[in-house]
Write a structure and sequence with these properties.
heterodimer; A: mainly beta; four-stranded antiparallel β-sheet; 11 strands; 0% helix; B: mainly beta; six-stranded mixed β-sheet; five-stranded antiparallel β-sheet
Chain lengths: 115, 113
């Protein structure tokens, strides 16, 4: 158990809809990262928040947005969903800001299926 | 443009033998490399890392080798155990890129009894 929780585990929705994925980081971790993993692909970095502020942005679509709240949990909002958004979405957390230099702890992921 | 490539989607190894997983990269600015392991229905877990100032890092049964001139790294697992059956991801980051991790597509390792 990494200490990172993600809800829901599974989500099935229709094209054009909007969903919210939730992540609670490990106790003491200030950074939260969001990743997308499409079928048989590597993880694609979407966005990082550190202590409530956006820290780094990857290949995140304009239809997607995220935020980190004062209690450090984070939400990833996906809107105007398309079939191609079907993927596993992982949240990870770390103590500091340098995510590529320190251990990131991953949640079990949310599997999104857009029909 | 795949900056980190794991060309073997899967690898099968006998229990007790050595497992060697390979990873190639194209971006010469990468200076830190990590391996993560992933079991089904779980998120990836950190395994081992190496900085570009080293060419080898060892942690128990796991050793990572880095060949900067070839832009190639490998993960050696000796001896391989059934619990090592998982998907292994190679990831890399560069100073000055906000340390974003760039991931390979993963190699599924199967340890045969």
């Amino acid at each position: 158990d990494s200490g990172v929780t993600q809800t829901p585990k599974h989500l099935i929705t229709a094209t054009g809809q909007r969903v919210t994925l939730r992540c609670s980081p490990r106790s003491g971790d200030l950074s939260v990262y969001w990743y997308q993993q499409s079928l048989d692909q590597g993880l694609q970095f979407l966005i990082q928040y550190y202590n409530g502020e956006e820290r780094a942005k990857g290949n995140i679509l304009e239809r997607f947005s995220a935020q980190q709240f004062p209690d450090l949990h984070s939400e990833l909002n996906l809107s105007s969903l398309e079939l191609g958004d079907s993927a596993l979405y992982f949240c990870a957390s770390s103590v500091g800001v340098a995510g590529g230099r320190e251990t990131q702890y991953f949640g079990p992921g949310t599997r999104l299926l857009v029909l | 443009d795949q900056q980190v490539k794991q060309n073997s989607p899967s690898l099968s190894v006998q229990e007790g033998r050595i497992s060697i997983l390979n990873c190639d990269y194209t971006n010469s600015m990468f200076d830190y490399f990590l391996w993560y392991k992933k079991y089904p229905a779980e998120g990836p877990t950190f395994l081992i890392s190496i900085s570009s100032i080293k060419d080898k890092n060892e942690d128990g049964r796991f050793t990572v080798f880095l060949n900067k001139s070839a832009k190639h790294l490998s993960l050696h697992i000796v001896p391989s155990q059934p619990g090592d059956s998982a998907v292994y991801f190679c990831a890399a980051s560069a100073t000055g890129s906000n340390y974003q991790l760039i991931w390979g597509a993963g190699t599924k390792l199967i340890i045969k009894p």
